Fold this sequence. Notes:
Chain A is mainly alpha-helical. Chain A contains 17 helices and 4 strands. In chain B, 36% of the residues lie in helices and 24% in strands. The A-B interface holds A 27, 160-164, 166-167, 169-171, 173-174, 176-180, 221, 224-227, 229-230 and B 50, 53-55, 71, 74, 77, 79, 81, 85-87, 90-93, 97, 100, 103-104, 106, 108-112, 136, 138, 152, 156.
Amino acid sequence: MSSGVVIILTGVLVASACAVLGCFLVLRKMAMLTDAISHAILPGIVAAYFFAHGPNILAGFLGAAIAGLITVVLIETLQNTRRVGNESAIGIIFPAMFALGTFLVSKFFANVHLDTDAILYGNIEFSSLDVLFINGVNLGPQSLWIMGALCIINFSFVIIFYKELKLATFDPGLAATLGFSPVLIHYALMSIVSVTTVGAFTAVGAILVVALMIVPAATAYLLTDRLPRMIMLSVLVGSLSAFLGYWLAMLLDASIAGAMVSVAGVLFGLALLFSPSHGLVARWLRVEEQRNRFASEMLVVHLLNHEGSPEFASENNIHHLRQELRWSDEFTKRVLRRAHNEGLIQQRQDILELTETGRQRAQLVIAR
Amino acid sequence: MSEQAVVRINDLTVAYGEKPVLWDVDLELPEGKLIAIIGPNGAGKSTLIKATLDLIPRAAGSVEIFGRPYSEQRHLVGYVPQRGSVDWDFPTNALDVVMMGTYGQIGWFKRPGKREREWASHCLEQVGMADYANRQISQLSGGQQQRVFLARALAQNAKLYFMDEPFVGVDAMTERAIVDLLRNLRAQGKTVVVVHHDLDSAPEYFDWLVLLNVRLIAAGSFAETFTPENLTRTYGGRMQLLNQASVATEVTR
């Protein structure tokens, strides 16, 4: 396998493993908690390094999972004191855990290959060089094995516990009364997030792993109103980011992990602007359409009110309308054009008259 | 009466820190009645329901549902939380929310199937929401969301229901639909316990009353409990005029 293929595959696996969990993190409004976990697992990894006398994958996972859970418990304990808000609790615990990790690294492992740079930024560039040997047999790049396994674990977790995750996320109260402990589900999710972070940070680093969990899921949330579709889209957006990110990094000779997350950010921005249902452009168009429709309805009601009255000619004069309704020239033109196109009004010189359709519409609006 | 008590609460105390929210409540609720829990803000009405359903820890006391602890009787109990307790922007539709009511019967791991889907549609129909089955829940009005929650409780197919403020912020049509539903449930011999706010409508909608203000003030049929003295003790002196007014309307009815 060429190194490019290995890097792209690793990226796609990392992004997929993260994105499938990310949906639930976004819906549970836990983006910052995820960020906290990703940093706070550092002391766990250091402890694992210490007890296993060197780098050991399984010990690393175990240490990270434990550190992640400790972080979550500490943050929740702090929140329960009611003197520290949600965000502050996260802001206190995660630097503390991270600081402990950096301290331990600098004190005990200053001369070995366990540097904070690698933990923060990852090195997906070298993923094809780090090969897994078992009994002297070369099994290919280690990153593919680790991330492949994590993908299988995460997808299985979400598929097997889909119903429970959905219920506990939407309505923890009902979940609890039905006997699906939301606390248990919460900690299961947090454990699996911690483990995924460890697996992924060797590739993309602890900072970017959060982006790969949250950004594709947030993008998918803008694009659909169905949870299964949101999960699929999230994985798709994540994978696409990995793929395009690699291509962009090669083109510009830049950091691959950085490029992948930047692409994810751009995809989010596009969805935010152009999503047909929740996008800003679509929302703006809807508001504009409402405004125009309301204005033309206001116009026909105004015409109806003055129909047949003595002041009819002056009230329904175009120029008078502009003053009366305080509309700009341009807006008046647009409203008149719209009402005319819909066959609601007809214009005789400067005087506006309702058509039969217009009269009916005005009566409908009043009756509403 | 102790023979048919569906809920038996003994010496229930719930506290947040040192502040008791419920103080030594002893209460037995009869079967087959529509029961209103009434009291001022902060009286512990929702807390009473949540402590009964093991949703919050009890500082002291015990609760029995049909003679056994709640954890053994989950399948007999339906729960309608306050509408504001969930995020209605969650990516799902009305039918899916109603199906969540069947999850308790399905158990861990297994997925709801065709039978659950049909049952959930039937429940949506009962609250007049059949046409909205596929509607994204954020696009429903407040009253419609409340009816979806009620349909979900129906889907639980319980014998005893707890509803937390179902009448808050709903339109007249939904209020009507909820009242019809409550009567329907009573006709099937079910018991419904409702946290309620409105003293005026209470005597019309319910047949049993629990007056609560941290301590239990009174519990019993409206004839016995809906008295100016009890209402004054529940709401304090300032409510006296209003209370007499609402009792007066009750008498003339």
